[in-house]
Amino acid sequence: MTTHTVKTEEDILRAFQGESRAKWTYRAFAEMAEKEGNHEVARLFRAAAESGDIHAHSLLRALHETSRATNDLWMSGMYDPKIIRESCAENLREAIEESRELSEMYSEMIRDAESDGWSFAKECFTYSAAVDQVHAGLFRKFIDNPDRKENLDYYVCEACGNTIDHEPSGSCEVCGSSKEAFKLVP
Ligand SMILES: [Fe+2]
To answer: For residue 4, how many C-alpha atoms fall within 13 Å in the half-sphere facing its CB?
Structure first.
């Protein structure tokens, strides 16, 4: 039995936990937004949750390169209920912070994957870092304009989780997939 620990393996576990927590947090934020009648923000949170799901799924695929048992991951995907704030505006700010933290975490992981030679993990980290910044920008649009009432459709790229607030007109700006890769978020 080997005791050697690959840093990227540890990073994948941390990233999976972060993405899972973000997914459930965004779903809870969406519920709160719906209760307030803020359907536009609810849709955005559902899109971000969907994207987190895609990242977590990719990370599990990247983990196939290791022999580590993954059962513990399934037990650790819950969010802290205290993170749900009193209003949609506060949740939007929390979501921006969440996106910023994830994106920062990934820059370190990209370097680890590079030096460990894990190319698919590096791709996952790179896409996720980029998309977390995209999310922060989308959340910010509602902070900057709280009365925004455009009826936006959100599309998520199934390859990288990129999230857009309009119909896809060309290839994905994050991963280069064709526009067919975008799925409308219900
Ligand atoms: Fe993409």
So the answer is: 5
Is pTM beyond 0.85? Reply is no
| Ligand 1 geometric centre to CA of 2 (Å) | 36
Closest C-alpha to 57, from 83, 29, 26, 23: 23
- Per-domain residue ranges of the chain: 7-146
CA 1 – ligand 1 centroid, Å: 38
Arch. (CATH architecture) of 7-146: Up-down Bundle (1.20)
How much distance in Å is there from the Cα of 127 to the middle of ligand 1? Answer: 8
Using one digit for the tens of pLDDT, what is the confidence trace for 131-172? 999 999 999 999 998 787 777 899 999 999 999 999 999 999
Ligand 1 centre from 86 Cα, in Å? 33
